[in-house]
Amino acid sequence: MNKDKVICPCKKVTKGDILVAMKKGALTYKDVKKATGAGSKCGHCKDDVKNFIKKHKDDI
Ligand code: FES
Predict the structure, then answer these.
(1) Tell me, what's the pLDDT at 59?
(2) Quick check: 32 pLDDT over 90?
């Protein structure tokens, strides 16, 4: 996985940023949004962020 890949262009949030937030306990879209800002502007990344969380929940 390329951790530098931006998943939310609006807020410049990368996959790595989301993993860090998840490691700190943000395991829902709402928590990740609060922790990183991902999805808090246009919302177009919402499904990508949700899928990302679902996919990586078990390996953190
Ligand atoms: S792309 Fe994430 S809020 Fe716009």
Answers:
(1) 83
(2) yes
